[in-house]
Amino acid sequence: MATVEDIMNLDFFKHNHLELVAGKQGLYRIVTRPNIAQLMNFSDWMGGGEFLLINGVGLGLDQKENMLQVIENANKANAACIAFEISQTFIPKIPQEAIDLANQYQLPIFTLSWDVPFGPILNTVYDFIVREERKESTIMDIMRNILFANVNPGQILQQTDYYGYDLRSPHQCMVFQKEGGYDALKKRFCEDKRILYLEQNEHLIVFYPYCEKKQLKNQLRSLLATEDVYIGIGDVCTNLMKYQNSYYQALRALRYLMVTKEKQILFYDELGLLTLLDDVDNDHNIKQYIMDFLAPLQEYQTHHSIDLIETLNVYQECNFNVAKASQKLFIHRNTLLQRLEKIAVLLDVDLNNFNARREIMNVMNLRKYYG
């Protein structure tokens, strides 16, 4: 994706003295195409993301009210930015009120000299967008090859080096899942030129430069503040051959999150005992073990209106604390004690025994993992 900041840093615009006068906070905006505004109602035919060129001919932009209306219309049409060509006749200056409004909308406003022709500007912006799209397509192909094919590490590293990505340094593979698409997330990742991302099978896969777990969680929480998203994170990749494994680990962590909805970020190594299941190709046997263990409780609640399985689950989630569990279940302490006595009899276990408690916790965690 081509951002406003990418384009303003092109040599062409540096040589022609493109100057940012407002909207610095919006430099992350994605530019989809260049365009020229020749009518005041230009917002009616814009598709969003335009690098908008305006020389002011016929628009009366020497009048403050008209200049403010242009900025209102550009914001309404979701323009990426506006570049005004300054001239004594048509746009002598950008008034402070217009600068304030653009800052409010975080809409980048630039000025250019009147003598810079529109043609080279349009060509420069368009050519850069096309190159960025080709680059993005190539990077996606590279990521697919790393994750799903037998790769030649030397060739892959040459390609990523060429595009400015350092996969020789440690990364972590993340898998994101959310409803409503990933455009906003991709725009945010676009700001960090170290991050590679790929949308695949309704997920967003991200190669994220390694940092310590606490720091990484803090960075990701800024995303979670505005996005209803779940993130599974695999082990650190110190070479290209580890990305596939890290990706599948991230998927497994995400799978657990989507079942339990206990949190929004989960590292694979936080699955604990459940990581051992990756080496066991016998899902049926594990599910049968869960069913057999809970069968006496299931049989009892089939004939009674008491959910003993959920009672046991809440009890172990509350660290086998009767007061906390009864409060969470909205039942009296004595009622919970009666249920626990029934559970102990049906399962033939001592609920105060450490080994029995450990097995109950394991069963309940496996039950969550296998849905």
UniProtKB/TrEMBL annotation:
Domain CdaR GGDEF-like: 153-256
Domain PucR C-terminal helix-turn-helix, residue spans: 308-358
Pfam families, per database record: GGDEF_2, HTH_30, PucR
Domain of life: Bacteria
Stretches assigned to the Purine catabolism PurC-like domain: 6-129
Family (UniProt): Belongs to the CdaR family.
Stated name of the protein: PucR family transcriptional regulator ligand-binding domain-containing protein
Organism for this UniProt entry: Absicoccus intestinalis
